[in-house]
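If your schedule permits, I should be very grateful for your opinion on a structural question. I have a record of one protein: its chain in single-letter code and its fold written as discrete structure tokens. Would you kindly read the sequence against the tokens and tell me how you understand this chain to fold? Thank you for your consideration; the sequence and its tokens are set out here.


***
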Amino acid sequence: MSYINKANVQNYLMININASFDTQISDWGEAAESFINNYCNRVSFEQESETEKYYDGNGTRELLVDDILTITKIEMLDDDGNVNYTLDDSTEYYLYPSNKTPKTSIIINTSNAPMSIFLRGYQNIKVTGTFGYAVNAPKDIVLAATRIVAQIISDKNLDIAGNIKSEKLGEYSVTFTDVDKIADKLDIKKDILDRYRKISVI
């Protein structure tokens, strides 16, 4: 699923796009989404279906996680993958940052939880919930993806409102490097994406 669709591109360019380009527009939208996610170090700017993700326990009360919107349960696993402890009551942990979403940190409430730390281990903490930055991608992220696809069309000099002649759609592929150059040309990184970029601390 892409942050944009054909209608976004049509409205931005103020044209009707030939139906023969529907698949191509979708592919370019996915390429733009992938670039945006990778550049910003985010899993997704849209809420995903409920899923499970595994993290390494660090021996402290706090666990840093991917952008998450809702949590169903947190499970501590032993070396064989069996559940030792489960935190499934929101009073057993705190989510941070406190006053905004997405959440990126889980801290055990030692007053209510059955354990006091995330035990050290590899992939021994299983978090079940809905991950993502927001329910729907922010409007400026949608705009960034739309502008990237519109620029691809401009760079390739495609008459997407007309009929395709002898060209094959497969020739109109783009690489990560192509999208990166387009983002630089449009100043999308500085104007939009840098505000959302999550810096990894090692």
